[in-house]
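Take a careful look at the sequence and tokenised backbone pasted below. I need to know what the token row says about the fold.
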Amino acid sequence: MSFRILDESRGPSRVALTRRQMIAVLAGGAASLALPGGAWAGAAAGGRLRVAAPANPSSLDPATGGAGSDHPFLFPMFDTLVMWDFETLEAKPGLAESWQFSDAKTLVLNLRSGVTFHDGTPFDAEAVKFNLERNKTAPRSNIKADLSTVEAVEVTGPMQVTLRLQQPDSALPLILSDRAGMMCSPTAVKKFGDDHDRNPVGAGPWKFDAWVNNERISVTRYENHWRKDVAQVAGIDFAIIPEVNTGLRSVMGGQNDFVYQLSPQQKQIMDRARNIESVSGPTLYCLQIYLNYGRKPLDDQRVRLAINHAIDREAFLKASMMGIGEVAWMNLPKQHWAYEPSLENCWPHDPDKARQLLAEAGYKDGMDLHLLGYTDQRSVQRQEILIEQFRRAGIRCRFENGSIAEKSAQYFAEGRGDGILSAWTGRPDPSLSYALMYLKDAYFNAGHAEPSPELTEAILASRATEDQEARKKELATVQRIVTEQALVAPLIFQYELAGYTPKVQGFKTNLLGKPKFEGVHLA
């Protein structure tokens, strides 16, 4: 017996489970899966946290991965130069215990002493220089744009690195709290080369054990980690279960302890169950249609505006999320400090206006729209809602579906299709989000269309000062331009929703919407 799982790296595949394992998942049996390997067979002191994860990672190397769903696997293994507060995303010391801009184009990082990578390699200024230069220049790096303002990385002391910038960039500390600041062992990267994707070595609270593609990932506590109170479970075992209903049943049946990225439909189930608890909170996770405006027909602003006016966002939220979430008019939710309220309802639902705009663009009989999407049940349901809404506005929409890895690569790397229905999972600093989506060479600008000079200038201006009120004003300009030019079709912000058994203690949601297991312990 087998069931379908999405393989992020190889497309759809079928992964065989034993009959006993399948019964445990589908029938909710209390018995745990008998998984092979020493890391899976038993638990050390503190127990092992068993997590149902909804997606196979694209890579376990922070630089080469391309999926926002990778982060829950990366967080345990890779410490970052800068950390962020769970509730506000405010920058906090990490592997860099302090930093300062000595002038507008110079950022000095003072590094934490006594830290080692999981393979024993010392963490020092040379290691940071190696990582940042690799992230910025390596052919396979997907995060070059994150460090585009960095002109040079200099070792200015055994535990000090100085970044020389091409222009002021106040977003850089928070950029270094994401993939660009995740530190890999230089020794391991040189040893494994491209295979570091599957043999990651970081300096985080847990170290890598194993990755069985489409089935599981395991990590074990790193006993020499500099923060002794972080890894309170001996290990974390991620079971890859793309269908969230199956993942939820695995927790209700006792096979797993924790499941995340659930939908409101699953909350009703959890509310009725006696052996599972739920937690939710606002996030930056924005479901949207990325628009390939670097090619016809979406190079015409009127067509992009028509697409946005064709969408009934309130109805979409009710039908797809039972009203639990937030309608999206931009790439930031209302809870964010840079949210711009004047842009609310900037594209009111108006099928007649959409038809008028299409006619002005030369499509008086309507137009065909070819979008890429994913095969999971929730994605298909959302596609059906959009197809009907578009039909009413004269847009004949068809979806070409496949695995997350397959279709994301086809759209973002190859520029295939008019757009893709996917999520923007957010970045700690909002200016980085806009840079990664709209600047010419950004990975998420599939058509690599040249942005307007006004947009480029506004994005750079939003990073030219550390004053938050001044930054908010510049980011409002960025958001206004993106809205006027209709460079994207944001739909809804999804709330983080996780479920877990009562023995899981200490879990907290965060505004980034991606679970971190720091401080989590088992009762």
The first helix runs from residue 19 to 27. The chain has three domains: 2-77+204-282+496-522, 82-189, 286-493. The CA atoms of residues 78 and 204 lie 4 Å apart. Residues 1-45 have pLDDT under 50 and may be disordered.
